[in-house]
Amino acid sequence: MSQENVELTYRALDAFNRRDLEALLALMDEDIEAVPRIVGGLGSSVRRRGGMRRWWKDLFDLIPDLSIEIVAVRDLGDLTMADTRYRGHGAASDTPFDDRNWIALRWRNGRCVWWSSKATEVEALEAAGLSE
Predict the structure, then answer these.
(1) Are the CB atoms for 75 and 2 separated by under 8 Å?
(2) Which of 103, 83, 107, 102 is nearest to 3 (CA)?
(3) Beta 67-76 vs 46-47: how paired, if at all?
């Protein structure tokens, strides 16, 4: 099952990069809880698919060309840890950014039930209730 979760992680991030919100939501549980680093006006977390839709719009309004490069994905059972790089430009700036990001995703029955993105692997593991 855990290798399947690694593959699901790749599929989710591929859907993100293709700007295919419906494909991404199809991998999310209806009761998804997300704690993205970039949340716009939604507070510190996003809940349910409706929240994901609002987050998606706010995110791409803020960073229209945001892309995620997968460096590696670690299999931790029902949890996957994706080492990624975020790249893009802010909507109000031509200054590019290239930022390391760690995404922890918890999977149940082929659906993501929780994810959190953090600046470091240690922070992402702590958010998931694990330590390195």
Answers:
(1) yes
(2) 107
(3) unpaired
Q: Which residues contact 19 (CB under 8 A, 6 or more apart)?
A: 60
How much is the pTM?
0.90
Q: What separation, in Å, do the N-terminal and C-terminal C-alpha atoms of the chain show?
A: 22
pLDDT digits (tens, 9 = 90+) for 119-128: 999 999 888 8
Q: Which domains does the chain have, with CATH numbers?
A: 2-127 (3.10.450.50)
CB of 29 closer than 8 Å to CB of 23: no
Angstrom distance (rounded) from CA 13 to CA 111? 14
pLDDT tens per residue across span 52-76: 999 999 889 888 999 999 999 999 9
